[in-house]
Amino acid sequence: MWLMIFLVIGNLLQTTLALPVAGSVLGMLLLFVVLIMRQRSSRSMGTAASHLIHYFTLLILPSAAGLFFLGTTLTDNWLRLLIAIVAGTLISSVVTLVTMQAMVRWQQRRDDATGPS
Questions:
Q1: What value does the mean pLDDT take over residues 15-39?
Q2: Is residue 56 predicted with pLDDT exceeding 80?
Q3: Closest Cα partner for 86 from 76, 98, 94, 75?
Q4: Is residue 39's pLDDT more than 80?
Q5: Is the CA virtual torsion 37, 38, 43, 44 positive or negative?
Q6: Largest Cα–Cα distance of the chain, in whole Å?
Q7: 104: closest CA among 116, 92, 96?
Q8: What is the DSSP string of 2-63?
Q9: In the chain, fewer beta carbons within 10 Å around the N or the C end?
Q10: What percent of the chain is modeled with pLDDT above 90?
């Protein structure tokens, strides 16, 4: 239910503000912000997410299928798209690595502070 509510909110924001971002992406960003502010999620959301993660590629498929209808736009801008894809992949990889290292250091400090179990 929460996923659908945030999907609708994201779609409404995208439509009313004419933003160049998909409403589903806006909805998930809003949900992410709310979860960070609450600093927890509900048990039902965790259960739903664990089931949905198995079908994640199917959730992305409709957006990827839309690329086939862009024809000349893709051929006219292939170099820009390639640069964006490579740069985005590198940036997300670096951010993931830095985040993982920070979380490992935080976990080690936490374990050291609590002592042996």
A1: 87
A2: no
A3: 94
A4: no
A5: negative
A6: 62
A7: 96
A8: HHHHHHHHHHHHHHHHT-SS-HHHHHHHHHHHHHHHHTS--HHHHHHHHHHGGGHHHHHHHH
A9: C
A10: 26
Token pair, residue 100, equals 């993982």
pLDDT tens by residue, 81-107: 889 989 999 999 999 999 999 999 988
d(CA 33, CA 40): 11
Joined together, the tokens standing for residue 115 give: 């002592």
Q: Give the residue carrying structure tokens 């086939």.
A: 68
Nearest to 52 by CA among 28, 85, 68: 28
């640069």: which residue's tokens?
83
Report the alpha-carbon distance of residue 22 to residue 63 in Å, rounded. 9
What is the rounded radius of gyration, in angstroms, for the C-alpha atoms of the chain? 19
